[in-house]
């Protein structure tokens, strides 16, 4: 593994630790804010006055800064899948802090995530040499990537204006799809911005180019959109469900976007690419196992006993498709 890839690996791991913990801290803040004001899941912003939510945001900020820096040193194919570690952290903390069940299958899922991540790390491609932000802009304006960007924007607008009002509160995939689609664009812009800053610190000023400002504006727009809809997803659905599904969709779309824009796999053999994909599938298996564990837990608890109102308030166990027939938000 190259030196740059090692730096990117260390930053990506530390990022996952911070981000995994931030999910739990923000969830606690959202629960507190929802108890005294309008919940984020129904359009409220009372969480902005909750110190615990801001603590979670600061923790996430540290993680995102580490993640941001990692993309400047290593390819997205290496950095992005390591987000699986944040799932393990959030699942473990949710079990301890939020009392959300993590059964044996969930532990197996965590192990699979680690195995898959290790496989990808050992076979990750080297970062290609880019000597200016103008070269990144050239990659971003190629027809194939422009087509991807237009498709993402069209899908996001369709989801926001058509599907969110109809089924955003009952289908977790609506909110997460918006976060993931915008996230794939934000990662490409973050990588471009990271390269520009790295070159600037090395003495090649890239801040004078207008392309750097464009990439920065895309990052801000995408991150704000992600934050808004991720808050809605966390407030409406169980953390143990949101985290793995968000990871799967976000990582898949980011790897696709990176393969189109940066052509990560052009210098690799077929066996290396297949091994990386197998590692990614292993991670997907782990995340789906975590999700399946959540469903098993819900089913068994429903068969075992009828929940008291106070039990429901404490656990907030909400399935993928919510049924609001018994109560209103």
UniProtKB/TrEMBL annotation:
This is Probable magnesium transporter. It comes from the Eukaryota. Residues 318-329 have a biased composition (Basic and acidic residues). The lineage of its organism: Eukaryota, Viridiplantae, Streptophyta, Embryophyta, Bryophyta. InterPro entries: EmrE-like, Mg_trans_NIPA. Homodimer. Residues 300-329 are annotated as: Disordered. It is a multi-pass membrane protein. It comes from Sphagnum troendelagicum. It is found in: Cell membrane; Early endosome; Membrane. Acts as a Mg(2+) transporter. Can also transport other divalent cations such as Fe(2+), Sr(2+), Ba(2+), Mn(2+) and Co(2+) but to a much less extent than Mg(2+). SUPFAM superfamilies: Multidrug resistance efflux transporter EmrE (SSF103481). Keywords: Cell membrane, Endosome, Ion transport, Magnesium, Membrane, Transmembrane, Transmembrane helix, Transport. Belongs to the NIPA (TC 2.A.7) family. The chain crosses the membrane at residues 6-25, 46-66, 72-98, 105-125, 145-165, 172-196, 208-229, 241-261. Coiled coil: none annotated.
